[in-house]
Amino acid sequence: MDRLLVLCRHGQSEWNKLNLFTGWKDPDLTDKGVAEAQAAGRRLKALGLGFDKAYTSALTRAQHTLKLILGELGQSDLETVKDQALNERDYGDLAGLNKDDARAKWGDEQVKIWRRSYDIPPPGGESLKDTAQRVLPYFDTHIMPDVMAGKRIIVAAHGNSLRALIMKLEGLTGEQIIARELATGVPIVYRFDETGAIVERTDLAA
Description:
6-stranded mixed β-sheet, globular, 15% strand, 6 strands, Rossmann fold, 206 residues
């Protein structure tokens, strides 16, 4: 039985390019982001990987990334579930602000705390801990049961919603996962044994 889970952060978005806090705002991919997603699909295809079901967030950049990946795999009609439980961390009052402007307004140290602490949210937004409390119950209820039933699953989502999943899968602390950088458009492939333990993890970086 093939217990396969692939996690992929969306390709570069228009607001990534502009160095803006994005969160639940809904910009699309840049040309570079489109190319990253297509390249991710080709790398998966080169490994002979295909999927039985897909999950993504309610945000355009993740959905577009998934669509491009599945197009490269010839699986454009794959069953796909879209849910805001997989959305990016909500940056609250920071959303839409240039990161340099935010540092000028609140100071380098405060913005660093909001971005890189595990449990301190920005004003009106979510910490990574808050994000995990939203993402992980959904993962436990919907995604992991599919994996353990032998379905090959791909999840196209966001840097922080995927950090929450990786923290759980790899048994990391909040401090460890905050330090983990997730490149745009790079699939991470997990294979599991019958107990749900990871037996293989592969980053498909270019």
